[in-house]
Specification:
Elements lengths: L42 H7 L7 H7 L2 H6 L6 H10 E2 L4 E4 L2 E3 L3 H8 L16 H8 L9 E2 L2 E2 L1 H8 L8 H20 L13 H11 L78 H9 L14 H4 L3 H4 L10 E4 L2 E4 L23 H4 L11 H4 L1 H8 L20 H9 L19 H7 L6
Antiparallel strand pairs: 1-2, 2-3, 4-5, 6-7
Helix pairs in contact: 1-8, 4-10, 7-8
Length: 457
């Protein structure tokens, strides 16, 4: 085995991570990459503008978006998001952490968010008659200043459809429900940089995925006496999420109290997706200054027993609604995921431990650079269903590409063929050994690596 010097952090073999010399991790020690990212998430503004009328709630439930609504506004831990971005590899569509690859799978999307994961590809032509389509589906026609390309202003939707009249018939309520779902998608699932038109952004999902699986930044991280694990989603009701003990209520002012309960013809609230249990104030008991360096250090020091490879087991799963557990047969499909101009590969074969299976050395996956450069700028008239036809055909045969492997028995050890391969093709540690700077916090993971035998690192 080739010797790797203390500062030789980059991969020995570069045939997998072909973008390493341009990746954030390559320049993580420069001042340019010491700043915390600040993505945009507009769920709070949406909830303050649009209180869901109880009469449209059954339609929202039937469409499969009630769990997203009940998830509400999640306070984002920006240093954590930054650390995860530093470990995301577009070549493999996975996070590279010290103990192996991890990623957000269709299973995570279904269980955390309660969204349907099966069905036709989300794409079509963008050559639309916006006025006719809005008139047909929403019953109103947007003015020119509320339209940008094929996107509609969320604020305009709220002004037009958020308060159906007291004598509104079923057609009017369905139109209001459609407008609510469209605005909900624009605020949570597809928020753009300004949060006022419908585009892409999955920041909240990334954070909740990390809290479920990783040993870093969780609200109960590092201390047995810290705030206990959140309640099961079925136990979270209208006021519970906003009643937090005073000793852990740092940041409670940032939580928007929202009443979500159903009051329509005596219906009871359905079970909620797992992500709803994290609708609590974000506390930083162990990282009061939100120090990016601390999270980097904790990820560098992470071991296999600190990763929750299978968080969705036992009683936790028994409490989930049916929508979270539907379509389990495609949780491990190796297929492209499509959303109009965007195509991203679903790579369960690289993260088999997340499904309780033994991880083998994965087959090489080609980095489709041209595909990653595709965006919708200047292409408002593009027919994406034709443009991405080969990938849509692959998605339509998703049931035929399910990865299998023997069951996982314990943790993968240092000499396992997969770990030997993984150490050669990636950069596992981002902070250099013996790193020191002018901040109050000094990293410890690098020093531990220097003093420990190689089979412990």
């Amino acid at each position: 085995m080739a010797f790797r010097g203390l500062r030789d952090a980059d991969p020995l073999d570069t045939f997998v991570l072909v973008l390493q010399d341009r990746h954030r991790s390559h320049l993580v020690d420069t001042e340019e990459f010491q700043e915390v990212l600040h993505p945009h998430q507009q769920m709070r503004a949406f909830l303050s503008m649009w209180r869901m009328d109880p009469r449209i709630c059954p339609y929202v439930i039937r469409a499969g978006f009630y769990g997203i609504y009940r998830l509400g506004h999640i306070i984002i831990d920006w240093p954590l998001i930054t650390c995860l971005v530093e470990r995301w590899r577009p070549e493999t569509h996975t996070f590279h952490v010290p103990v192996g690859e991890m990623t957000i799978t269709l299973q995570d999307v279904a269980i955390i968010l309660g969204l349907r994961i099966d069905g036709p590809a989300v794409t079509r032509t963008c050559v639309l008659d916006v006025a006719r389509l809005c008139d047909e589906l929403l019953g109103v026609i947007p003015p020119d200043d509320a339209i940008r390309g094929s996107a509609i202003s969320i604020r305009w939707l709220c002004q037009q459809l958020s308060t159906p009249s007291s004598d509104a018939d079923e057609v009017a309520l369905q139109r209001s429900a459609r407008g609510f779902i469209l605005a909900l998608m624009g605020s949570f699932l597809f928020a753009d940089k300004k949060g006022v038109h419908v585009h892409l952004g999955y920041i909240t999902l990334i954070q909740l995925w990390s809290w479920e699986r990783l040993h870093v930044s969780r609200l109960d991280f590092g201390c047995a006496t810290a705030y206990p694990a959140p309640p099961f989603p079925h136990a979270l009701r209208d006021d519970d999420a906003d009643v937090i003990p005073a000793d852990v209520a740092d940041g409670v002012d940032d939580v928007l109290p929202v009443q979500h309960g159903i009051e329509h013809e005596g219906e009871s609230e359905p079970a909620l997706p797992l992500g709803c249990r994290w609708r609590v104030p974000l506390t930083r008991v162990h990282n009061p200054s939100g120090v990016l360096l601390l999270y980097r250090d904790q990820l560098d020091a992470q071991t296999s027993d600190q990763v929750l490879w299978q968080p969705y087991i036992g009683e936790l799963v028994d409490q989930l609604p049916d929508i979270c557990l539907a379509s389990q047969d495609i949780w491990r499909t190796m297929s492209p995921l499509i959303c109009f101009e965007i195509v991203e590969w679903h790579r369960p074969e690289r993260v088999l431990r997340q499904f309780g299976l033994h991880q083998e050395i994965p087959q090489a996956c080609s980095y489709e650079q041209q595909l990653h450069r595709v965006d919708a700028r200047g292409r408002h008239q593009c027919d994406w269903s034709a443009y991405h036809a080969p990938y849509i055909a692959l998605w339509e045969t998703r049931a035929g590409r399910i990865i299998t492997s023997p069951l996982m028995l314990g943790f993968i050890d240092f000499h396992d063929p997969y770990m030997q391969w993984y150490r050669r093709i990636t950069r596992r540690f981002l902070t250099p050994p013996l790193h020191r700077d002018d901040m109050r916090f000094h990293t410890t993971a690098g020093t531990t690596r220097v003093l420990s035998p190689p089979w412990l690192t």
